[in-house]
What we know:
The protein has helices at about 5, 10-20, 35-55, 65-80, 85-90, 90-110. It is mainly alpha-helical. The protein is globular, with a radius of gyration of 16 Å. The two termini are about 30 Å apart.
Amino acid sequence: MSSLEAIGAEHIRVTYTKVFGQVRLGRPGLDGAEDRAHLAGTLRGQLQLLLEDLEGRAGDFHGEIRATADHVATRAREALAVEEAAVARDPEQLHDMAVLARSLLELCRLPQLPTGHTDSCAHCLP
């Protein structure tokens, strides 16, 4: 079972939407320490599973898509290194983790490129 199946892409989207809540100057509209703590734990779990999924597909990406995947994975690992309680207290950290989860989700959903093709191949470009 892939991470997407384990978590459910819709659950990731719902968490992302909850973190963003009522957008006010780019800050998430979250109420209550308990709600933020729950979201911090949820996002941490999502990031961990999505990172595993992405790392399992490392050979599927090339060129700019590979560079993007590497960047998002590095940022996700950095976010996971922050103490969960600190994330729960900082709306910006929650915001960043939600963006990273959505980014990882979209990277994990990319189709595998055919052997011998890269993301800059004329046959693979839309």
